[in-house]
Description:
Strand order of the largest sheet: 6-7-8-3-9-10
Oligomer: single chain
Amino acid sequence: MASVQLDRIRKVYENGQVAVHGASFEVADGELMVLVGPSGCGKSTLLRMIAGLEDISEGSLSIGGRVVNDVAPKDRDIAMVFQSYALYPHMTVTENLAFGLKLRKHDKATIAKRVDAAAQTLGLTGMMDKLPREMSGGQRQRVALGRALVREPSVFLLDEPLSNLDAKLRHSVRTEIARLHRKLGTTMIYVTHDQVEAMTLGQRIVVLKDGEIQQIDTPMALYERPANLFVAGFLGSPAMNLLHGTLVLGDSLVLDLGDGLRLPLGAAVIDPQWAGRKITVGIRPESLRPATDGQGEFEALIEVIESVGNEVFLNLRFGAHALVARVAPQALPPLGASLDMAIAGDRLHFFDPDHGRRLDVSTLD
């Protein structure tokens, strides 16, 4: 096992395109770090530079305290799991698992021991003689994981390994990866564009946008204190409600949305100097609820009700603004009806609308 340290890593292609802008962070020994962001944000490029499959334009990459910028991929003591499985179609499960070890000249006893251990761990023992075409997508992905597992590398690199699976299999294999990490304690770097995967798997998460790191923190810290508007809108399902307007400070705090539309912000607290200034207010769906005591802050029209069993998503319309609320199953008015809503003002998020940065009450200026 080993730590991975990136020091101002940049990737610039020959045409001048900058894919990664000065990425710096450390993945601790035994940590599961997730790189997340939309398509084209540079996360897979960053992973491929760690693997040695992409040259590093600038900066320093260390694995286990050793600078590996010029070290060949096979000598970095890493194993990579790809999105496409990359199994040899003419080889059985046993042969696929053993192939890398044979190339590295391990003896037959060691190969058999490691292959058997990986098969036991991943539940592959009943299909060792099958070819990839005879297996489901989830089974093939487990073989791909097993092929990396038998290597016993210092670092596992996983590049969107679940994107080709259906929802049920994604959950199953995601759970398997988390269980494997707990069992093996191996350093893992996992790339995904799916924020649910990122939030459920990562001990820490690196959020990227346009090749730049936006924030690095634990899943709950990112959710509860997003550093900027991009992180706030990207993490969370349904996404955070973002409203742009002017703060009005009277007996209570109000967001003036224009056209005579005003949204009372309940118990929210903010520095009085922000009165009369443009601001963006973020409201998580769970911070909106129907008011049952006649103490609602505003009325909204019900456009769509999405019941998903243990919770309900209310798609609301407040003037020209769409809002989503997450509520417990309950009796609700019909579609098109007006609903009195309350806001958990103590859980609002404030952002500078010009630069997108988070505004904390203690640091507003």
